[in-house]
Amino acid sequence: MTQEIQQEIQENDISGARQVLRRLRARKSALAAAIVLGLLVLFALAAPLLAAWEGQDPTTYHDGLVNSAAGGVPLGSFGGVSAEHWLGVEPGTGRDVFVRLCYGARVSLVVALGATVVQVVVGVALGITAALGNRLADSVIGHLTDVLVALPFLAFAVALTAVVPADFPRPVLLVLVIGLLNGVGGLARLVRAQTLSLKKLDYVSAARLAGGSSWRIARRELLPALAAPVITYAAVLLPSNIVMEAGMSFLGVGVKPPTPSWGQMLSTATTWFRADPMYVVLPALLLFVTTLVFTVLGDALRTALDPREASRLRVGRAGRAGRRKESAI
Amino acid sequence: MPRHRHTHRIAIAASLVALITGAVACGPKGQGDTKNGAAGAPRSGGTLTVLNRQPQKEFDPARLYTSGGGNIPGLVFRTLTTRHRAAGAEGTKVVPDLATDTGKASEDAKVWTYTLKDGLKYEDGTPITSADIKYGIERSFAPELSGGAPYLRDWLVGGDTYQGPYKEKKGLDSIETPDARTIVFHLRKSEGDFPYLATSTQFAPVPKAKDTGVKYAEHPVSSGPYKVVRNEGDGRHLVLERNDQWSQDSDKERHAYPDKVDVQSGLSTEVINQRLSTGSGADAAAVTTDTNLGPAELAQIGGNKELAARVGTGHFGYTNYLAFNPKSKPFDDPKVRQAVACAINRTSVVNAAGGSSLAEPATTFLPNQATFGYTPYDPFPAGATGNPDKARELLKEAGHPDGLEITLTHSTAQDFETSPDIASAVQASLEKAGFKVKLAGLESNAYDEKVHSVQNQPDLFLAHWGADWPSGGPFLAPIFDGRQIVKDGANFNTAQLDDSGVNDEIDAINKITDHEAAAKRWGALDQKIGEQALVVPLFHPVYKRLVGKDVKNVVISDWTGVLDVSQVAVK
Questions:
Q1: Cβ–Cβ gap A252/B345 under 8 Å
Q2: Which fold has domain A2-328?
């Protein structure tokens, strides 16, 4: 291909991304979700500033703020809400809930996003290799994904984190364990199936006849077509990764205490849901909102990436039809 | 290597005691009140339901590892002596059961003689003889019936090699039965605590003619007020009914008010506590022998007067502590250990353990009960919330003016003992004093293995200890007796203390048969060891348990810390 044509393709790509963005902006739900997500990220990034603003830190114990004789339930109403502790204090320790939620957002978001990136990269690579490679590669990867899908994730993750040296940074370990074990098998299968059907399409055959290598075909012809299903799948995986991180924290193999994470807070909170409902509601609400936001964004992204939906969106009336379809889902 | 087994088993016992002898408790804290919310005098009749987590998997008296004969097993098996079924400190006493007294000791406490009461019978009406008790003990030496406490093997002459009555029909010469009512034990060393050991189920009579070996557990012959009529699902569901051959006249300890006891296990903590608090149907006459109330449940019950009146409080002799490895840096320096002791904020730690209703701050290694020889002392007084300034100063004197980086090992089990919550509270208080604390959380099996291995023992870790009977000996000796260091097995002397002064004093006290006199010396020994800061006592746990609304006559002794199922009435 000449340089000219390459240039043209690149320009097309850029304008494609712009189009997708424009289509996303046109959807109010996506816009709202993006704004909320932005706030959550800001909440996580600004944790030290927010802590300083409130005048608290995530690890200081406040023995005087809990009723020791009553199992350590926070004194005062709504879990010990006060001018010093905006969202109350943790039962048993008296640590500030607001600051712990801020810092907890960092763990949850970083681990979930990191794990999703790992899942997408590994899953897509495995899927395309299986579909384009020879029979041996396909069968090896096929068995591997079977194992990954059938693996009892939590049991295996707990075992893995138990054998890894204690000095290994926990967040990285969590990203790798969740990223490589949770959902990769499913994603690889999806990509393989999609690739196999795409492979038969004329434009891919044309590219192959034109002498394109497998790598080139994968990159140029298949990846753009795979983007929509992969992104949709990733949007499902992301909230599930957040939950997995929470689950691992629940089992005591998440981030190390006293580093707060939403999962850890929720796991303590499960026993406290009657005596101190605020302590359950707050991390649960944040977890719910984060999951919802990612799901809405993922869905919007899928629609925006879908050429058929996109053509409808470009025409004003059909755009509304597209939205109606979404609300039906 | 009996020594290895010995120490390892005690630790298991500590937790088993809580499980097996466990029971619901009722009545205001610390008052030794034997009444509960249900009004009126206890009467016979009805069915008592027991809701438990752990199935009673083992019901062979040879294999049971109990403190004071256990709770449910204690309804079926009578033993030479037993724990006094009384509330509070009175309940830490050992009293006669099948025997007429708690044993006559020779001068050096090496020979113990017991005489059986008159007219004792099994459930089938045949008489109980001293030979049956000897046989019951011999059975516990059979390898296929292992599981009981290791003391008999260690203490009885020839016990270390005896293989049980199936292989060695001749029996154990160190147990003599000169007549049908007399039994004499010959020990290889002085053991003033022998009457306490004689409360365990290995001292229950087993009629040789009815012994079916490993199958005996399916239908053990009862000597107590109840017999097993059903045992389903490997101890998941047990039904006990009255043994009409048992007579209250020969048994001053057990009451046996209910006609039937129905034990249901395999339930979760939440289910048990929810069923007890709701108390619908048979659950109104229910108790639990193994499930405590957690801090959140306590907080919730606090607002409900009716429920709060049904919560029983018990104290089982137990200590949760920080253990050092004084053989490794930086804790080989007593000043560093003292700095840790001064820095600990026990208020935070107690809160992490469930608050002041579930844990009491500890400065002594011995539990805060007279029977252990409790002598209040605080070698490094730092107040309820610790003294970080003093700790900093001690660190400076030790040559660490800029603080010190240390690692605290804990388990990831959510048990309010060695759990991450406790570790975080310890970490928070140490960091105030200039320590930089790294937490190393291990899965609970890996944790147990690591902390009890001399080679791999961490420098600093969370530990806990309870004794097999309420006496200073089984509390101090396994932890501080230099001869109990196990180099290649499960070691409990984690301070690796081998001080001839301490060892000799342990031997000397073991010779004393007067419990009170011995207790005083155990207390003094505890203080002497405590001053070396080999451990930092953190707290003594308190048990809170719920009973059904129709349950009467709740008795909680300090021996078990939990309700005694033999005293409960449901009518």
A1: no
A2: MetI-like fold (1.10.3720)
